[in-house]
Design brief:
Layout (H helix, E strand, L loop, with lengths): L22 H17 L3 H17 L3 H18 L2 H17 L3 H17 L3 H17 L3 H18 L2 H17 L3 H17 L3 H17 L4 H18 L2 H17 L3 H17 L3 H17 L4 H18 L4 H12 L5 H7 L1
Helix pairs in contact: 1-2, 2-3, 2-4, 3-4, 4-5, 4-6, 5-6, 6-7, 6-8, 7-8, 8-9, 8-10, 9-10, 10-11, 10-12, 11-12, 12-13, 12-14, 13-14, 14-15, 15-16, 15-17
Organism: Streptomyces dubilierae
Protein name: Tetratricopeptide repeat protein
InterPro entries: TPR-like_helical_dom_sf, TPR_2, TPR_rpt
Length: about 350
């Protein structure tokens, strides 16, 4: 039913690259082709090669380089009058904005990308851009607004037999079910995503699906060792492909699993590691979530209750500023779990 996964963001002379190519290899090949296109005065090829450069930098966590690269790709595409390439560059910029926690900018860029993709007749970039909009809303906790779009994109991906996009949609829907407390449905969807990704040789998609499965078997079943095994398998892929962001989220999830198991000292170490990784790549959402896990771990290890309350109040403000609409619930659960009454005045001041 599904063909082998492919990477439509690797374009022009880079179409031979695999979805599983190491990001360092992608960056090297993309940079070489970009420089050749610039020397030859071929802006269309420069735009396509620059897209791969932008995406490699983004996934490696090099946000400043990624920002310069997608903008250069857009300028080259505009010079060439290539509307579809302009759409792809905007998609990359919107995805980077979401990664950096700039959700309003992400939505603007991704909507522009979807519109240009439709105008340029590129159904793939249109689909990827709509998927980006859906993911942005999902990350912010606006499930009602984007749930239907996720289902629509899943149906379209299944109809076209596009494995990579099917896997993405399944994982997004699974995450919403998991966060809503429907662990059984979440598990089934993550499991299906992992199976499709394996069959299509989509190692990145499978790594994210394994992370989701680990979360569920930890939270639902209390099976710590199985969860850690799944995360170890996913981590191997992240390291082989140099997926910096995915690796940091893997480490944060490992912290979650260890925390649930009462292994607080080990959890603290993983949260500290993830926090450093997110800070290095300027990813505020991952940083804030790692801080929350670390605060809870330190509280369990005997940290002063007033210090913990102050940290949670500051985190509430940070999460609110980032634009995570379920921030209040996350922090409230932490207060309840730790038995630390919320300092209403401090929380309001932070917000």
């Amino acid at each position: 039913m599904y063909g082998k996964a492919f990477a439509p963001e690797y374009q022009g002379a880079l179409t031979t690259l695999s979805v599983n190519s190491s990001l360092t290899d992608v960056l090297a090949a993309g940079t070489e082709q970009l420089q050749a296109a610039e020397r030859a005065g071929e802006p269309a090829q420069a735009a396509r090669s620059g897209l791969a450069v932008a995406e490699a930098h983004r996934r490696l966590g090099r946000v400043q380089d990624a920002d310069r690269a997608w903008k250069a790709s857009y300028r080259a595409a505009r010079q060439a009058g290539d509307v579809a390439a302009m759409a792809w560059a905007l998609w990359s910029g919107g995805t980077l904005a979401r990664q950096r926690g700039a959700f309003p900018l992400a939505r603007r860029l991704l909507q522009l990308a979807a519109d240009l993709g439709e105008r340029g007749g590129d159904v793939v970039v249109r689909g990827y851009s709509l998927a980006g909009l859906a993911e942005t809303g999902r990350i912010q906790g606006d499930y009602e607004a984007v749930g239907r779009l996720h289902e629509q994109l899943l149906a379209e991906a299944r109809r076209r037999g596009e494995a990579r996009h099917t896997v993405w949609a399944l994982e997004g829907i699974a995450q919403m079910h998991r966060n809503s407390g429907d662990y059984d449905t979440a598990y089934e969807l993550f499991e299906e995503a992992a199976g499709i990704a394996a069959g299509a040789d989509d190692r990145r998609g499978r790594a994210w699906a394994l992370r989701g499965l680990a979360d569920v078997v930890s939270a639902r079943d209390g099976d710590t060792e199985r969860a850690l095994e799944l995360l170890t398998e996913a981590e191997g892929t992240c390291r082989a492909m140099r997926l910096s962001s995915a690796l940091a989220y893997n480490h944060k999830m490992r912290g979650n699993v260890l925390y649930r198991a009462g292994r607080y000292a080990q959890a603290r170490e993983l949260y500290e590691q993830a926090l450093a990784e997110f800070r290095e790549m300027s990813e505020p959402r991952g940083e804030a979530l790692s801080r929350l896990g670390l605060a809870k771990s330190l509280a369990r290890l005997g940290r002063d209750r007033d210090e913990t309350a102050a940290e949670l109040a500051d985190l509430a403000g940070t999460l609110e500023r980032i634009g995570l609409r379920h921030a209040h619930a996350m922090v409230a659960r932490a207060h309840e779990e730790l038995g630390i009454p919320a300092d209403t005045k401090a929380t309001e001041a932070a917000l």
